[in-house]
Amino acid sequence: MANTAVFGLLILVSIICMKMCNWFPKMWYVVICWVGIFSVADPLLTVILDCIEQDWNQDMFKLYNWFSKTADSGVVGIYITLFMVLFETSISGYAYYQFMVHRYMNGRILDLYRRLSG
């Protein structure tokens, strides 16, 4: 969630700069784009790295471990973790899509789509 919050903050800064100064550096559009890609891919990367390290006490397995200690099985922890990961990835993906279509380089992708389909 922190990556998504940083991504949202960067989008907000770009919107404020465009409203107040009518200019935003092109390099920072690329930086925001990469932060957005990382915020969407972060849950998947976390699962992959936790599985490679085979340390089952890491982030993605904490709810499973807690439910397996307090309840009979950790299946509920798996479902809750999957729901949270899918929800967070959906929110990040939607924010990334909106940024790329409407804000990236002042809406060049939307302009390109309109010209190609028109």
How would you sum up this structure, described in words?
The protein is an all-alpha fold and 118 residues long. The chain has one domain (2-117). It contains five helices and no strands. Helix 2 runs antiparallel to helix 4 (75-103). The protein is elongated. 14% of the residues are buried. The mean pLDDT is 89.
Brief descriptors of the model:
single chain, 118 residues, mainly alpha, 5 helices, elongated
Give the helix/strand layout.
Blueprint: H1 2-20, H2 26-53, H3 62-70, H4 75-103, H5 108-117
Helix pairs in contact: 1-2, 1-4, 2-4, 3-4
Whole-number tally of structural domains: 1
Order of helices and strands: HHHHH
Profile the largest sheet: none
CA(first)-CA(last) distance: 39 Å
Beta-strand proportion: under 5%
Oligomer: single chain
Question: Shape, please?
Answer: elongated
Rg from Cα: 19 Å
Total beta strand runs: 0
Unreliable spans: none
Structural class category: mainly alpha
DSSP helix fraction: over 70%
Tally of individual helices:
5
Provide the residue-averaged pLDDT: 89
Can you give me a brief rundown of this structure?
The protein is mostly helical and 118 residues long.
